[in-house]
Each structure stands twice: as C-alpha cells, then as structure tokens.
Specification:
By secondary structure, the protein is of the alpha/beta class. It has a single domain, classed as Rossmann fold, CATH 3.40.50.2020. Helix content is 23%, strand content 36%. The chain is built from three helices and nine strands; from the N terminus they run βαβαβββαββββ. The strands form two sheets. A six-stranded mixed beta sheet has the order 4-3-2-5-6-7, sandwiched between helices. β5, α3 and β6 form a beta-alpha-beta unit. α1 packs across α2. The longest helix has 18 residues. The radius of gyration is 16 Å and the shape is globular. 29% of the residues are buried. The structure holds inosinic acid and magnesium ion. Inosinic acid binds next to β3, β5, α3 and β8.
Length: 171
C-alpha cells in the first residue's frame, strides 16, 4: 500500500501533558466514589490506557464496542458490537472516548447506561471536532478542540490503520 503523508496536529508531548492534567482532575473528583471506567473500543484504547496509568484513584475497567465509521464518513447507524460486562448498579461511571464528532456514539452509549441503576455518569473525551452535532451531549473532561478534519493516530484509525502513532495527525 502507498504510504500517505501525515501532518502532525497534536504532538506526543502535548497529548501527554493533557493526559496528566485530565487524570489529576479525575482524581480530584472521584476521591470518595466507586469509579467504573468504560473505554469505548477501539479508538479510545490508547488514550484510556494512558489516563488510567496516571490515576491514583481505585477503579474498575470495562469496555463497550461500537462501530459507526466507514472510510472517512460517519454512517448514521450505530452498531453495538459488545456491551459492558460489569454490573453497573450503583457505579460512578466515566466513559472514555477518543473523539466527539457528530455526537451519535457518545449519546448512544450514555442513553444505554442511563437506563440502568447507575450512580453517576461523566465523559472524558480526547478531541472535540467542530462538526455540526446531531446529538449534543456534555463532555466533562475534554482534551482538545479541533477543526473539522479527519485525524489519525493515538488510537484513531483510517480503515483500521495508523492507531499506533504516538501523535495525532491529519491524513
Ligand atoms: P460520532 O458518533 O460522530 O461522534 O463519532 C465518533 C466516532 O467516530 C469516534 O469514536 C471515532 O471512532 C470515529 N471518528 C470520528 N471522527 C474521526 C476522525 O477524525 N478520525 C478517526 N475516527 C473518527
Ligand atoms: Mg471511538
């Protein structure tokens, strides 16, 4: 396959600084809580593993897997591929997501969890894209705001590739 050029948008250093800052805020807010971190697969795996290694707070970890993208286009349908396995009753849930684009994915997952007897629900998102949001939802911990560009790296992919880049770039 021909290699495409990637322009660095957010450097490895900038990301690591932000991860530390976010983890500190989360630690402060979850001191007396029963934290369950839910990572949205597959994109948030790198961000999530960096965040949890900075946390001083005890937590348990689970995953939810959804799919919505094909090539560079968001499809309208969200497909739930794997749901949370943990008992979420009474838990203080923090969803960790890579990117907030149209908002469909996060809203879908939030609505799914809000139907259960959880104690609280917050979201931590690495990148907010300036896109017209079809489903607006609050982000409690946000890393970066970017323009409407398709990005890869640090967990984010283009058709399954580039997830391992230590920085975020534009294809
Ligand atoms: P939303 O449902 O439109 O908010 O889309 C969120 C999901 O689409 C994210 O979890 C990503 O997996 C994917 N996505 C959105 N924008 C990008 C991008 O620029 N690069 C890679 N994946 C993206
Ligand atoms: Mg994602």
């Amino acid at each position: 396959m021909k290699k495409q050029k990637i322009k660095v948008l957010i450097s490895q250093e900038e990301i690591q600084k932000k991860v530390c800052k976010l983890a500190k805020q989360i630690d402060k807010d979850y001191k007396q809580k029963d934290l369950l971190v839910i990572s949205v697969l597959s994109g948030s795996i790198v961000f999530c593993s960096d965040i949890i290694r900075q946390l001083k707070t005890d937590f348990s970890l689970d995953f939810v897997r959804v799919a919505s993208y094909k090539d560079k286009q968001s499809t309208n349908k969200i497909e739930l591929i794997a749901s949370v396995k943990a008992d979420v009753t009474g838990k203080d849930i923090l969803i960790i997501e890579d990117i907030y684009d149209t908002g469909k994915t996060l809203s879908y997952i939030k609505n799914m969890l809000l139907k259960k007897k959880i104690k609280s629900l917050k979201t931590c998102v690495l990148v907010n894209k300036k896109t017209k949001k079809s489903n607006k939802t609050d982000i409690d911990y946000l890393g970066f705001n970017i323009e409407n560009e398709f990005i890869v790296g640090y967990g984010l992919d283009y058709n399954g590739k580039y997830r391992g880049l230590p920085y975020i770039g534009i294809l």
